[in-house]
Amino acid sequence: MLALAHDGRAAYRDRYELVYRRESERPNEQWQADHNKLDVLVLDDKDRPARPWLTVILDDHSRAVAGYVVFLEAPSALQTALALRHAIWRKADPAWPVCGLPDVLYTDHGSDFTSRHLEQVSADLHVRLVNSTPGVPQGRGKIERFFGTVTSELLPRCPSTCRTAATAHRRQRPRSRSPNCLAAPT
Question: Which domains occur in the chain, in start order?
């Protein structure tokens, strides 16, 4: 009680609150959705370098990617709905069997995840939309781990990877390959 009184609710929660770790018992019981801005440069429609966004739908049970979408605009409910559509439909590759409807779609509290559009899509599909508590990211660890693996293991092997986000913002048009930002020759 002293910690709560002296340090406040957030400090108390971080120090003493029990973390509930939920494990799905079967595929499609719960999916998680989130966005991440990638440290990769691609050319936009005006041939300018830009960093794309990746939206991923992850099956909580298997941690398999059920669907995704890559885009250059800021995340929106439309992009999330497109990733959800990709997750639901059968894939052309038979080695990627993840598809179907989840019972629950768990997301953070971003405006694109709390939009009327996504609420309507979820209601039409009979999928329960659950948003995490603002400022409490504990339940989203699996998808955050996925994005961490993409950032630390996959992207460094790509020829257009930026080592830091600050490097990507400073560069206008990459002219040569450098150790900080490797981009396709122009």
Answer: 24-170 (3.30.420.10)
